[in-house]
What we know:
The protein is an alpha/beta fold. It is built from twelve helices and eight strands. The protein has an eight-stranded mixed β-sheet, with helices on both faces.
Amino acid sequence: MGYTLAILGCGVMGQALLSAIYNAPAASPETKEFYPSKIITCNSSKGSAGNVEELIKSFGKSANDIEVETTFDDNKRAVNEAQVVLLGTKPYLAQEVLNSVNVSEKLLLSLVAGWTIEQLGEYSQYVTRIMTNTPAKFGYGMAVLSHSARVSNHNKSLVKELVGNIGDCIELPEKNMDAATALVGSGPAFVLLMMESLMESGIKMGIPLKESKQCAIKVLEGTAKMVEKTGEHPSVLKHQVCTPGGTTIAGLCVMEEKGVRSGIVKGVEEAAAVASRLGKK
Ligand SMILES: NC(=O)c1ccc[n+]([C@@H]2O[C@H](COP(=O)([O-])OP(=O)(O)OC[C@H]3O[C@@H](n4cnc5c(N)ncnc54)[C@H](OP(=O)(O)O)[C@@H]3O)[C@@H](O)[C@H]2O)c1
């Protein structure tokens, strides 16, 4: 008999985790125990609960026999029934939502940016912070995990198994969480700015929008795959593209002169600084 997972706040990120866990391939005999037999999704409005219901209808049967119940305005009952609680509200609502339920004996998984283990520790000693991103909705997400000292090895493995279904996940010390919030959580927006810029360069020089977009997507996807598959440092691969006196080095020099690199580094740092202030509001 499995356990029940309650998703407190099932919006964009809650639904990404729900989809990944529900649609995970059949677990091995060793990992079967990490999957819930039931997921209860919690929203405050009927409309949002209806959206989750529609999402579930679009799924096939769960390979791990997971049953899903969608609810609204029923947090207390859902949390009482659950052994594991995933908090997926916006940061400014986290306090109100946590104050209205009792998670003290539950494993509390938090998607909430800026909320520290110490702050979450007022509600449960068993806390894992998860920082993930929107590509998780499509199985291409990244997640960074950070556990409180009281999380057992069994529960660490459980979280890794469940969250790994969104794409990839790693564990880091909590001191890295604000940086992870910026790099992983906000990262897609930064990459989309890069994609948009590449597309606009194509359009500016006469390549139609559709084709510019197609080229930009494949350049970003192909480059990421090349770095992953070769294991090389990006600068090594970058120099392989640079013919002496050629086009690529000329373009790179102008980008460096315009401060593209320091703009990206400082932008990610600024996002991390904002993340560090989120839980303090
Ligand atoms: N979006 C991102 O790219 C991203 C990336 C990294 C981390 N995060 C973190 O993920 C968390 C969720 O973000 P999100 O983008 O998924 O937000 P979201 O789409 O707004 O989802 C939040 C959900 O919380 C529900 N909710 C609000 N009040 C509630 C209550 N009293 N009880 C139960 N549910 C309630 C809302 O449902 P109703 O509509 O019914 O109120 C909504 O579906 C945030 O803390 C954020 O820091 C987000």
